[in-house]
Amino acid sequence: MTSQTWHLILTSLPPIIKASVTYTIPLTLISFTLGLLLALLTAMVRLSPMRGPFQIVRGLFWVYVWIFRSTPLLVQLFIVFFGLPNIGVQFSPWIAAIITFTLNVGAYSSETIRAAILSIPNGQWEAAYTLGMTRPQVLFRIVLPQAARVSLPPLSNSFIGLVKDTSLASSITIVEMFMVGQQIAAKTYEPLLLYSLVAFVYLIICTVLTILQSYLEKWTSRYIQTGNN
Amino acid sequence: MLQLAHINKIYGKRKALNDINIQFPDHETTVIVGPSGSGKSTLLRSLNLLERPESGLYSFDQQTIDFSQPIAEKEVLQLRRKTGMVFQSFNLFPHLTVLKNVTEAPIHVLHQDKATAEKTARQLLQQVGLDQKANQYPMELSGGQQQRVAIARALAMQPEYMFFDEPTSALDPELEAEVLRVLLNLAKQHNSMIVVTHNMEFAKGVADQIVFLEEGRILFCGSPQEFFSEPTQRIHDFLSAMSFTS
User: Fold this and answer.
1) Which class is B1-71+187-246 in CATH?
2) Domain A3-220 bears CATH identifier 3.10.129.10
3) Name one Pfam family in it (chain A) (predicted).
């Protein structure tokens, strides 16, 4: 590589990394945290045995999951940011991005959490009920801690997916990593180099998350006996 | 005193419980026997409302439940507070240590402080011979050990009645014996117990009252002496089928 290329790499990396720290990472963390809470609520509502008027609420949550899983994330972003102002609802790019990513993560992850809760044997519920626990107690103290272990790999998938999906926020004027790379590429006529650099930084972030995931998996599986017995 | 009157439970077209009328006296052990699918477990599980019969009256001391009416959550919790249950498949909480399995409900249902709950738990674990295993996870224990922890977990709630649903059916004979010894001790201390089992030797040794169930009906309810003297042809056939001698 020529010294010119090295120079370009060294001058381009700081703004790209800065964009990841100021936009990509916070956007991911905030949206995923809120999205997980929404997913938990959605899963709980959809699994609730309650009857009567509550069934309407359950229906609404079903519709929410259906819509957000059946439309592209990019289209969702455009509707929230460019579309809603038409009916007088205006968000800043940040808020629009957080709302859209949160709703999107909430819809997908609610299915993960729902499946994980359903994977816990019925005997766990029954044993806890016979000890006098209420349904919320059983859910939060007995079932969810075990479901967390089951849902960790698929939730990590969603998390890593979200890191990369935040690049779509560039389309609603957020100057995150990808947008910064695009701007420098436009000035220097080095798209291959710049987009590879951007890809490299995504790779590093996701690698760190993958390592974190394997630690979490070990920790949440500490009560499981492994080995061939 | 625990009492059932005209209890009916239907699964699809089959009557799992057919007009059950029975009393379970306090401080005695009632053993429920009968062929597979006769409704033994359904009967036991109705007593702590894991199953809801369609009709009939259930009275537990002063509390009476009418199964034909909706049952309030408060009533359910109140009744379950008075009963403990041990399952065929143990159903220990795998993510909690042995000690925490036993202290979980006393701390979070009875609101005992941690020290008190742990002291009681250690005594109970000692009683079932497992005080050494307090800090291990259930999956590190044998089936017999897990079942003994499950017994300690139920006892920690100081229930008035203990229910055992085929507590040894998933165990090897050797492990079965260690669990049955614990049950025998509990019976000797005049706990109020109801046990569903296939083990006739054990039934003979532990029961104050035997209930023989078939196709959801009570065919016999009386003393073990009377039951094992084979008062009817059906009981004779049942007991013959359960033993190897002809």
Assistant:
1) alpha beta
2) no
3) BPD_transp_1
